[in-house]
Structures are given as C-alpha cells and as structure tokens.
C-alpha cells in the first residue's frame, strides 16, 4: 500500500517547513523501514505551494503510525503553524498483474 499526503504551504513558510518534514520522514524511515519521498508541484499559485509526502510500499499499520507521528504535540504545532489548511491522505494499492 502506498500513501500520498498532500497539503498547501505558503511561499514564505516553505523554507522553515522543509527541515521539519524531512525530520518527520527520517524518523518514520528509521522506525518503520519506509523510503519516503517529498515532492511539490512546480511553481506556486497565489503565494501557495502544494507539497506531497509519498510513502511507497508501507506495511500494515503504517497509516496509524503516520497519523500518530503527525499528531505528536510538538510536531503538530510545528507543522500546523506552517501548513495552510489540512493534510489530505490518499491510499493506493497495486493492481495485480494478469497471469
């Protein structure tokens, strides 16, 4: 199962948010063996960027671990102050190949 988490970031907050998201992803990688990616749409619209965290090939329970990590009081305050609006999580699974 792959997780895609997207949210909006004000241009002026992007530089301060980056190390916080990288730290979150590094902690999740160490604890859960995931290989996170961080992406963004090119450019910005009305001073806003769209960022996406990608967590490919996650194990069962990772969605809950991610939610718990993000809701940790210090991290939640750090991210919440720099993200414009909610984080949206989408889950995708592989389509089996036809044999």
UniProtKB/TrEMBL annotation:
Pfam families registered for this protein in UniProt: DUF4936
Protein name stated in the entry: DUF4936 family protein
Top-level taxonomic group: Bacteria
Organism: Pseudoduganella flava
């Amino acid at each position: 199962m792959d997780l895609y988490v997207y949210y909006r970031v004000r241009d002026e907050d992007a530089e301060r948010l980056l190390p916080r998201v990288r730290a979150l992803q590094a902690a999740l990688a160490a604890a859960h063996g995931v290989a996170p990616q961080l992406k963004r749409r090119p450019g910005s619209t009305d001073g806003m960027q769209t960022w996406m965290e990608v967590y490919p090939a996650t194990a069962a329970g990772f969605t809950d671990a991610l939610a718990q990590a993000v809701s940790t009081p210090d991290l939640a305050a750090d991210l919440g102050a720099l993200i414009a609006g909610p984080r949206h999580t989408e889950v995708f699974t592989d389509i089996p190949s036809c044999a």
